Amino acid sequence: MSTLEQEVRIIIGETNLLAPEVTYGERLMHLFHTGRQGLSLAKIAEAHWDALAILAEAQRTAAPGTLYAVWASEAPDHPLRIEINSSRWYLSGIKRFCSGAGLVDRALITVEDKLLDISLTDIPSEYMVVDHSQWCSQAFAQTNTATLTFNRLPLSPEVLVGENHWYVKRLGFWRGALGPAACWGGGAASLVDYAQENKRDDAHTLAHLGAMAANIWTIEKILLQSGKDAERTMQADALQRLALMTRHLIEQLATDTLRRFARAYGPYPIACIADINQQYQELDLFLKQHHGERDLAMLGKLIKNEQS
After folding, report:
1. Helix (H, G, I), strand (E, B) or coil at 59
2. pTM for this structure?
3. Which of 35, 65, 171, 218 is deepest in the core (most CB within 10 A)?
4. Distance between CA 245 and CA 296 in Å, rounded?
5. What does the angle CA 115 – CA 119 – CA 124 come to, to the nearest 5 degrees?
6. At residue 308, does pLDDT exceed 80?
7. Terminal-to-terminal C-alpha distance of the chain
8. Where are the domains of the chain?
9. Which residues sit opposite 114 in a β-bridge?
10. pLDDT tens across 201-235, in order?
């Protein structure tokens, strides 16, 4: 068992982030602090907690002592597909960006218009091939992000979670989209922690420190308010608007923090301090999970529709 897997299993064993144990604001702040601790840790743990929330929303019980992933990225060239033959299902195709492959026990996997809950333990290689070779970045190298190729993996219909299209139509979809943004904010905060401890105090450095600290203060306030709004909002369009706005703002603030950190402290901490290098590179890559202008166009369309 890798060190990262041990850390993840400890933290998920100690922490219940499901309602009514915590409010959604508390959930987001816990994800923020997990990201501050380490983004590889946060990436695997956040997906697990998201999976538990999805299963709870579907009124399904998560397997005890199990580490989950959520794999929802699509490969347009060879998408996953299900062949239904009598009472058996057969899963074939490619699923990319499977973080935690080889670490997690089960995964919620999107396939066509369905969401499947699949056990990953002891699947023969004739049915599933795990390929880590495509991931060449050192960022998130510890997360075992892989490309999975399925070749008629036999399944029972009981793996289906919810009805067709349920995964993207449920209210929890956009609440869940706030989780990665909270991790981004925590990753940015860890860089500011280093900046606060650094002894440089020239005006140039202090100006960037002040701006970065203001960024983190703003991120925390946004997460707390978004958590409150997400709990009391029960309309899908309003939740989508909230999530898109929150993710955009945090992405902008975290990106500004990355830029200022490098300008203030130069190459040394990024090149020569392992923990800082990892957080900096992983935050830069993690922020690409925000879909930029595509998400903003979606947000603009929602705002236009509200006015019509």
Report:
1. coil
2. 0.96
3. 35
4. 8
5. 120
6. no
7. 55
8. 1-58+170-308, 69-163
9. 111
10. 999 999 999 999 999 999 999 999 999 999 998 89
φ, ψ at 248 (rounded to 5°): -60, -50
Q: Which two tokens mark 97? A: 């960006």
Q: Place 87 in a pLDDT band, splitting at 50, 70 and 90.
A: confident
> Matching CATH topology for 1-58+170-308 and 69-163?
no
Please give the structure tokens belonging to residue 268: 């040394």
Q: Which CATH architecture has domain 1-58+170-308?
A: Up-down Bundle (1.20)
Whether 85 has a pLDDT exceeding 90, the answer reads no
Q: How far apart (Å, rounded) are the C-alpha atoms in residues 131 and 99? A: 12
Q: Which two tokens stand for residue 161?
A: 């979670």
pLDDT of residue 130: 97
Neighbours of 238 (CB within 10 A): 17
CATH code for the structural domain at 69-163: 2.40.110.10
Closest CA to 269 of 218, 196, 203, 202: 196
